[in-house]
Write a structure and sequence with these properties.
The protein has 505 residues and is α/β, with parallel strands linked by helices. The protein has helices spanning 12-23, 41-44, 76-89, 182-192, 218-226, 230-244, 246-251, 256-270, 274-279, 297-301, 359-362, 396-416, 426-440, 468-474, and strands at residues 2-8, 29-32, 96-97, 102-108, 117-122, 127-135, 158-160, 174-178, 197-201, 208-209, 292-293, 306-309, 313-317, 320-323, 328-330, 333-336, 350-352, 381-383, 419-424, 483-488, 499-503. Helix 1 (12-23) packs across helix 12. Residues 480-490 have a biased composition (Basic and acidic residues).
Amino acid sequence: MSHSVLIIGSGFGGIGMAIRLKRAGIHDFVILEKADELGGTWRDNTYPGAACDVPSHLYSFSFERKTDWTRRFPPQREILDYLRLCARKYGVLPHIRFGTEVTEARFDSGDGHTASVWRVSTRDGEELTARVLISACGQLNRPTLPAIEGRESFTGPSFHSARWDHGVDLRGKKVAVIGTGASAVQIVPEIAAEAGRLALFQRSAPYVIQKPDRPYRRWEKALLTAVPGAYELSRARIYALYESRALAFIKYPRLMGVMAKKFRRGLDTQVPDPALRGALVPGYPMGCKRVLISNDYYPTLTRPNVDLITDPIARVTPTGVTTENGTEHEADVIVYATGFLTTDFLAPMKISGLAGRELNDAWRHGAQAHLGITVSGFPNLFLLYGPYTNLGHNSIIYMLESQFRYVMGCLRALRAADLDWIDVRPDVLDAFEREMHERLRSTVWEAGCDSWYMNAEGKVVNNWPGFTFAYRRATRRPDPRQFRARRVEPHATPGMPRTTPQNGA
């Protein structure tokens, strides 16, 4: 089956890109989704307390405002419902093929008489073709389980936070939670009240600051709906506030000292016990790893039925978790809040570009993509939420909308210039890669800690080292000088075009 555009994934990236295609009059596209429902990370993460750490008015599409969010920080179910609404309202649902997992995508450059296509293989053996391939897989879609000795020997229920088993009753049980990242900070306060005993295994302490969350009042939602511009003003105010925080992350890391002092005051207030408080002080500069927000995480750790375990884990046994000091902590249930494989991006799919070169080979020293979107040697392939586009201070939806516009600009260039394919030049990608790492050196993310922003070689490959408005300016339109292209010959047979190489798009 052949399409103009094929999108992999139906989270915010895939749904938003599809809406942009439809609004531009492009209807010959398909979204392949391996799950049975849309939603991406907001479909997968249904653990207790799951919510966003970006305010609701900003964590939404600019073209589809929602004035009746229940809280300042939206819970998982409400975000998923919002995505479902967008897919229905803009007619995207008929374009989604659920239960269709992509295993391989191969660029076929044609034989001189036929146009190039991406040949996409699915888990069930089907092959689809498309002129353009767009990956909307995101960075937080592949849960990672730690390589702990004996993990498979545990006889009770165990699961990753992103694969929460709602059939397991935690009431009165001994629960072990391994990991203290963003998911754990939300999970632990929710389940501590019903668990008989909860052991939280901490490898490194996170920075957790207050979450300015509360329900929206009825009159506030009415005002946002009735007063022209009120919602847009709220969104702009939140954007400006969060964007200002980039100064501490990317320009002047010393400003993090102000936030660190506020963090210490909050910790002192919430955790009276000096020994417990000392164990909760991170040993790295604030901002180097993801800064977390919660109002009830630290108070929960002071509960009499909660134990913070800082000794390294030696092994998992059939009945619990043993630490390196020889102590066995009995458990009925183990929850792995251990994050995701964040730097593999398109894995485990096999992606092959020009001359059959595999993306894994092109990325053997780390993922790289110009503006986080295009990879040299892989024509007509576009990534959404790719390398160097994650943020530490603002909404990824804003970044995605910048990418939608850039991709649409590339598609217009393909059509207007009658091009078979476009491919970012290798020297352009190399220059961008050098620029990113030069700029990242002065950011707080390279201040001396290991984080999920880094790949196996210790290079930060996830984050954008700048302001989001600068990224929007950089992606305003594709620069033809940065691409090489193959042009369709004017006398070629329609639908079976012969092509000739060209420099520039």
